[in-house]
Every structure is written in structure tokens, then in C-alpha cells.
Amino acid sequence: xxxxxxxxxxxxxxxxxxxxxxxxxxxxxxxxxxxxxxxxxxxxxxxxxxxxxxxxxxxxxxxxxxxxxxxxxxxxxxxxxxxxxxxxxxxxxxxxxxxxxxxxxxxxxxxxxxxxxxxxxxxxxxxxxxxxxxxxxxxxxxxxxxxxxxxxxxxxxxxxxxxxxxxxxxxxxxxxxxxxxxxxxxxxxxxxxxxxxxxxxxxxxxxxxxxxxxxxxxxxxxxxxxxxxxxxxxxxxxxxxxxxxxxxxxxxxxxxxxxxxxxxxxxxxxxxxxxxxxxxxxxxxxxxxxxxxxxxxxx
Length: 299
Known about the structure:
single chain, Seminal Fluid Protein  PDC-109 (Domain B), 2 helices, 20 strands, about 5% helix, globular
């Protein structure tokens, strides 16, 4: 199992993006907003969208007028950094961002994406380009014979883990998602240091918790409202005895921090971005211990 602690992406870290921040007009205290109209409030480390709750909304500052304005989300370029996997940054043809990665960043994850390819380039100020790799987002899972290869529908990967970034103290990482002629979407982009905890054993479980509403009437007919879901996972992990104290301290420090947990590289479905619900370490053997951790993902 690996743990990736994402760095905070703010104005200083986001060097550039090709996604426009002009989807909605900026808030203007001298303009009267209609009921349902949306406005953006943009400033230093401030990128927010509000929706008017009343007609003739004039002179009411959104952040301090909850009866007049409802907070909707961050602006489109920042949806991929908002600690939610469901909300997505959307752009036609491509999404390209450059991020200043301060510190030891050896891992990158793209979650809930819709694209045909992803390119990751890392540049060091002294050594120049040190990493350049393009990943196909076409899934080969379940393609185990010629019939499946030729006749099964093409399925794209929604998640991508890049765990082999070279270690540099300070670098620039450029990520480009592409799908010419289509809308490209990205739910989350995570960059940070990766910690190898130990080997995940067989018996690990993965699943989801669905927040959709399914109501049945008296005749057995269903009314269904699709809503978000979150991933869940439970991992038994073999840990070296000498790492038990360090692991205990690390997990305690992450108790309220959204973190990426990767059960195993073999199954992308074991990557969950969220919090651990509970963990225990059984000091089972002289040289090895057993970590049992239950993870709940963000929606």
C-alpha cells in the first residue's frame, strides 16, 4: 500500500492553465442580478461562484449575504483542485496546467477524468526536462481474447496513477489531458510525495457508497434521482516491525487530511482519495505487523 500526501494547489503553485475563468460574469456591486443568475468572485487565492437567490439583487456582497447569494463552487479551472472528485474542470479539446511542485513530489494522480491521453512533463530549473511520458487512457481491462478486442466497446480509464516521478527538490510539472473534438474533464489532480507502507494482502475489499435516491411507490414503480457516490476500501497490509511507530505517527497526522491511498498498483480500483475511517496495527510477529485500515473516499 502506498500513501500520497497531496500538496496544496493555490495561486502560487498554479503557474498556468489553459482553462478560462470567464464562464460567469464577475460580481459587480453596481449591477442588479436576476434570480438564478450566477457571478464569480475572483481575487488572491479566491475563486468562487455564487448564485443569486432573489430578483433585483443589487449591492449585496455574496460572501456576507447568505440570504441573497448561495455559494455554488469554485470556478471552472479550480474544480480539479477543490477536494472533490465528482466536480470536474471542463474544457474543449484539452486541459493543460503547470504546477510548481515544491518539495519531494514523486507521485501524481488524475481522478475522474474523461480524455484519450495524458502527458506528464517534469522540468527542473537546473537540469531542464527530466521526465516526459504520455499515457493512453484507453482501458484494456477485460480484453482477454480476440473477440473482446475487436467487438467490445472501447472503455476509457477514469483514473491514472503516475508513481515514478524522479525526485527533485523543486520542479515544474505540466499535465496535459487531450481528447480532440471532445470535452475533456478532470475531477482531481493530485501531486505529492509517496510513502510505501507495506504489502497489501489478498482479502482487500473495494466498493462504493451511493447517495442516489431510489423511491418505490405503492405499485412498485421506482423514482430514481442519480447523485454522487464515494469509494470505500479496506486493506490488510503487512508492515515491517521497524516501521510500526512511524506508521502510527503518520496516520495520526493524516486523520483529518484528504489523502490518496493506493492498495496495490495492480488494481486501479484500490486507489481511494479521502480519509481513513479507522485503523489498527496488530503486532503479530517478531519482524512483521499487520495494519488493518478502512478508507472512505470523497464524493
